[in-house]
Design goal:
homodimer, 339 residues, mainly alpha, Farnesyl Diphosphate Synthase, two-stranded antiparallel sheet, 15 helices, 2 strands
Chain lengths: 339, 339
């Protein structure tokens, strides 16, 4: 996934994988093995299309471990927190795929598509529970008080996730959306868990309050920057602009940053978007219209400013060593990626 | 709800209500108030049909508090655990109603029926998170180590809930069900949370390992007995037998204890049940057929034996005072109820 610090990243990814598998094993019980199989399928370990690509990039758990190391801790101590964050992320993906009626994820059929909505809801609930169980493993190396703090950081992030998802779903019925509606949604859906990831890493490293808050701000702004950049690529990225691809956010109806900017202009773009049922052959001209109305510039500037804020927060957090360099590189890389 | 120890019960129920409202308030956030409203609706506080009846009987949180008091603790200390157990129960109801396609609960429209499946899944996730956040409040009066133990008791119960629900859903595709399939499902779906309720009460009271295990067994067997009795009433209770009611488990296709007993006989009852689409006018004769095959006797004996085991476990747990008497009365009452 990440091209920076190849050796360190590979070490972290391998440790995360081991920890994740151990965490998911806990669901197993005589007569109930298929529930574990569903989770293993979702995590990319089993079934058609299984393999490293199918499991996602593991950016969140890597962030937990890099932050812990960059804050002066031993990353190994943060492994349960890293696995927990990845499990929470995946629980939310299972439920999001049902809520968004998405038939595929990472090129494979989604859980609900294969096993039906009822079993998929329940499998998500099982994964959510496994995430919290896994976090309890922190206690093996950390004080009870710190383990409880970590649980609360995570629970607050989960609450924000559900608030963000609530807003996303609620926006479907609205015809007066604008930029103001974007940030509360993305703070919940994307930034909350990344903020929790860096806060957990710093918490486990044992840094003082102020540096921990700086690491948290780094994660939060990284998340916001990441989403803004993702939204930019979702309309003007190479895959999206060809018009042949179904990957364009203009086709899926995603309430992305440039789209909400455009809706707020209440001009030609907004008129067409609210009519709905946008066709592949319209994408190129509609993207051009949105660009003419300022949506592309606005989004690029937002991504740049947020990355700048992320890097500034990181500087205040005084990251150390190889892991610190990796965090800086990660922020740059996320902004300058093309896909 | 409970007719025993009226004054004590009323005090506990009022305290539980206050704690629950406080717990659910935590989801509130500017711009997101409607998510809190959905949860308040589900809990019977808001919307059409709101009122004490709409919120359920609160048996689980009362069990937590009575157990804590009967084990020699102050029930007030167990309030966060009591509220947590009730919130977990309600989270699972929100998701179960979607999974079972149930349009009503406690005489009111279900969450998914009013706000759609996506918002209902997400509201359930929010309530699940609030449950865990609430448990953290134990720390205000209890040691960190005990708070972590309580969290693990709860997480294991949640894991069992999802296993039980997995089995329930998986049974829909099977045509070879028998009694053996009943207990693993009910241990997860019903008994696990009641076992956790009494274990949490005893844990917070600070009793030693052996008595805590006895309190746990009490809760578990009470849960199993409760379910067996519920299943009996679901077919031969006054409401179910009239044939005019749609409340019969024979109409809803519920895999209850007498039904699974009957399916295991592979006789006339099983043949009719597997054909499906059972009509109201058939209920009376089908119930008589199942009774002739031994389903009613088997279920009554099971409920009696399990209640006996529950009472024996309770005796071993050496419950004290008014709360101890209330627990004994509760077990008798659950067995001898007629609806």
């Amino acid at each position: 996934m990440l091209k920076i610090n190849h050796e360190l990243t590979q070490t972290l990814l391998a440790a995360i994988e081991t920890e994740l598998r151990q965490a998911v094993t806990r669901v197993e019980d005589p007569g109930c093995s298929h529930l574990g199989y569903m989770l293993a399928y979702h995590l990319g370990w089993e079934g058609e299309g299984a393999g490293p690509e199918a499991g996602g990039k593991h950016i969140r758990p890597v962030l937990v471990l890099l932050t812990c190391a960059a804050a002066g801790g031993a990353w190994q101590a943060a492994l349960p927190a890293a696995a927990t964050v990845e499990l929470v992320h995946n629980f939310s993906l299972i439920h999001d795929d049902i809520e968004d009626n998405s038939p595929t994820r990472r090129g494979r059929s989604t859980l609900w598509k294969l096993w039906g909505v009822p079993q998929a809801i329940n499998a998500g609930d099982a994964l959510f529970t496994l995430a919290y169980l896994e976090l309890g493993r922190l206690r093996e190396t950390q004080p009870a008080e710190l383990t409880l703090r970590a649980a609360e950081v995570l629970q607050q992030a989960c609450l924000q996730l559900t608030r963000g998802q609530y807003l996303d779903l609620a926006y479907e019925a609205r015809t007066d959306l604008s930029l103001e509606d974007y940030w509360p949604m993305i703070r919940g859906k994307t930034a909350a868990l990344l903020a929790a990831a860096t806060e957990l890493g710093a918490l486990i490293a044992g840094v003082e309050e102020e540096r921990r808050a700086a690491f948290r701000r780094f994660g939060e702004h990284l998340g916001l920057a990441f989403q803004a950049q993702d939204d930019l690529l979702g309309i003007w990225g190479e895959m999206a602009i060809t018009g042949k691809s179904t990957a364009s956010d203009l086709l899926t109806g995603k309430k992305s940053l440039p789209v909400l900017y455009g809706l707020g202009q209440r001009s030609k773009f907004a008129q067409r978007w609210y009519r709905g049922n946008i066709q592949p052959q319209e994408i190129e001209s509609l993207a051009a219209q949105l660009e003419a109305e300022g949506g592309r510039d606005y989004t690029r500037r937002a991504a740049e400013e947020l990355t700048e804020q992320a890097l500034q927060a990181l500087e205040e957090a005084q990251p150390r060593g190889e892991a610190g360099e990796a965090l800086t590189a990660l922020a740059h890389q996320l902004l300058h990626r093309q896909a």
